[in-house]
Every structure is written in C-alpha cells, then in structure tokens.
Amino acid sequence: MQIANSARYTHFSGILLLLAAFSLAACGGSGDAESTGNSVNAETQNYNWKLVTAWPKNFPGLGYAPELFAQKVEAMSNGRMKIRVYGAGELVPALEIFDAVSAGTAEIGHGAAYYWKGKVPEAQFFSALPFGMNGREMEGWISYGGGMQLWEELYEPFSLIPMRGGNTGVQMGGWFNKEISSAADFQGLKMRIPGLAGDVLQRLGGVPVNLPGDNLYTSLQTGVIDATEWTNPYNDLAFGFQDIAMYYYYPGWHEPGTVIEFIFNKDKFEALPADLQEIMRTAAEAVDLTMSDEFTARNSIALKELKEVHGVEPRKFPDDLLIQLRDISQEVIDELGQISPMSQRIHASYREFEANVREFHEIAEEAYSEARRL
Ligand code: CA
C-alpha cells in the first residue's frame, strides 16, 4: 500500500504542478495546436496528433487498441484532441516508432518495449521476459510495484513517456514446419522471436530474427524464416499462419503476458493542458484493460476455428525442453540485469515483485487452476 499511495501521490503532485505552471505561463501553445479563438488559450486549442503503430492498420486486437484510444480521447476531449492512427509502414516502419516519436515526427506510438532491445536493452523488462511474470503480474508490478517509475526514468533521456497500452496474456509457442521434440530441433532454426527469448533460442543454436508482424506471413511462406511466433489464436488466425505452417506449439514460454506500450513525445505531452494529459492517461488505461478483455473473449473462439475449420491441433512443447528453456531464461534475465546501473535497479525491482507475487499466486491463481482440473 505504501508504494501505491506514493505512486498516486507523485502523480497527483505532478498534476498540481502542471496546473500551477499553466496558470502562470498563460499557455504558449504548441506548433501542432490551432487556436479556435482570437487569443491563444490552451483550454480552447484544438490539436491534431499523429499516432504510429507497429501493427497493420486495423489489425484485430493489437491494431484495434490505438483506434479505440483515438476515439476515446476525441470523445472525452469534446473534439479538442484529434488523433490520426497510422498502421505499420504508413508513416514510419514498425520498428522505427521509438525514434520517430522521440524525434517528434509523430506525437504517439503504439508497440512493445522489447522491439527496442538494440537501442535500450533494459526496455525488455517492460514488455515480456521468457519464463518471467505473466500478464496480470506484469500489470501489477508496473502499476503498483514501482515498475512505472523505472520505465519512465529509462525513457526520459529519449524524450519519451511510456504508458501501458494493452496486454496479450500468455501467448502461443509459435508456428513450425517440423516437430520440436528436443532442444536439438532448435539447432540452425531461423525463427522470428522478439526480445530476450531470442537470446535463449540463440544459446540452443537457433537463429532469432526480429521482424515486425506485417512481414511474417511472406517471410515464413518464402522460407526467409523457418518458424515464427506472433501472439495468440485470435491474432495468429488473422495472419493466416495455419495455411503455411504444420505445427502450432504451446505454451508461450517466451512471452507469458506481454505488455503493449504507448509512447508519447515528452515535450509535446507536457505542453498539453493538464486535462488533456489526464484524458490521454485515462484512455490509455482503458485501452490497456480492454485489450486483455478482447483477447480473453476472442482467443477461445479463434482456437475453436483453428481446430474445427483448419484442422490445427496444438501441441505442447515437451516438458524436458521447457525445463531447459526455463533454466536458460533465468540466466539471460539475470545477465540482462547486470548490464548497467539502471538494469540492476530494474532487475532488482522485477525480481522482488516476482518472488512476492509468485508466493501469493501459488495459493491463489495457480491453486485454483489446479483445483479446477481435479
Ligand atoms: Ca509474440
């Protein structure tokens, strides 16, 4: 409770400071604002912002979230803030969102923090870690366990403000064209797998590839990659992997509950009136929750369709292999936690929260799941 209260207090203090700043500065306005009256007033200015995403335009689930965000912000702001959503590649390529929003080319981005591992390796802590915390645990850590403050601090040098923008829940293990019986089957396997899980695959002799979603179907079809994971039945079905891959494995050991992120250009966000800032934060929270609900509701329907219409029979990775993957995952997580003073702090916070929540979930979520199967 102490952490929660202090986090809320910090946020509340920030709003008070902003309100004070605006009353003093009488609102200069940003370059993207249009005055609707004779005098420039932040309370009446209209804004037209751009939101770039890592997903194809209107892609189910992941791509629906930024559209919903834009609708909510426009409705809550009574039309003062209009946001145009761009799909991957429309304004910038999927994996260049971070740089584009950092530079102010677009004001908002929607993607996942592990996409930036080449630039900010520590960012991987805020999306998903292989054999790390699940979706509910990640959300708890970020929201009430100190994760959010660390995430903000990590992105601050890039002039970015992160916010949670959805959660996929436990993903599927991926699509393969050969059976995976043991670790030896990963030898030489060229697989699209993002984030730290790629390092795990590499230690087993595999070749991890970080490709955005819009290239995956063609890459798998033409043999550029041998295997791919994407998300879960609802989103995998939408890409059509069932038509070009023989085997669908589970569980998604590599992404046990991926946090999707919004990123905002910090200068532009902080130049907004306090009410529009709060509207953005509230809309992001709403979208974060809604995505989880959507995946929960639609994954089961999509799984049924994959099985009954497309003849897909999901296979479980062998237990021996999962144990091996789990052990290597813990090694790579702990190594990531030693690359910088910042990574040490994030890692310590992550591990502490993980240990505590795990103790609780063993007698709550997990105990119930076991009881349900008795
Ligand atoms: Ca994935």
Structure description:
By secondary structure, the chain is of the alpha/beta class. It has two domains: 45-167 and 258-296, D-Maltodextrin-Binding Protein, domain 2 (3-Layer(aba) Sandwich); 174-256 and 313-353, D-Maltodextrin-Binding Protein, domain 2 (3-Layer(aba) Sandwich), CATH 3.40.190. The protein has 13 helices and twelve strands. It has helices at 2-25, 64-76, 97-103, 135-144, 147-155, 197-203, 216-221, 233-239, 266-270, 274-308, 319-336, 341-362, 365-373, and strands spanning 33-34, 46-53, 81-86, 108-111, 160-167, 174-176, 190-192, 207-209, 227-228, 247-250, 259-265, 315-316. Strands 1, 2, 3, 4, 5 and 11 form a six-stranded mixed sheet that branches. Strands 8-7-9-6-10-12 form a six-stranded mixed sheet, with helices on one face. Strand 2, helix 2 (64-76) and strand 3 form a beta-alpha-beta unit. Helix 8 crosses helix 10 (274-308). The longest helix has 35 residues, at 274-308. It starts with a helix and ends with a helix. Calcium ion (CA) is lined by residues 171, 229-231, 255.
| Proportion of helical residues | 40-55%
Summed over residues and divided by their number, the pLDDT gives a mean of 91
Give the topology string: H per helix, E per strand.
HEEHEHEHHEEEHEHEHEEHHEHHH
Hetero compounds: calcium ion
Find the CATH topology of the largest domain. Answer: D-Maltodextrin-Binding Protein, domain 2
Total strands: the figure is: 12
Shape category: globular
Give the tally of structural domains: 2
C-alpha Rg (nearest Å)? 21 Å
Question: Cα distance, first to last residue?
Answer: 35 Å
Q: Detail the poorly predicted runs.
A: 1-31, 35-39
Under the CATH scheme, which architecture of the largest domain would be assigned?
Answer: 3-Layer(aba) Sandwich
For CATH, the homologous superfamily of the largest domain is named as Bacterial extracellular solute-binding protein, family 7
| Helix/strand class | alpha/beta
CATH class of the largest domain: Alpha Beta
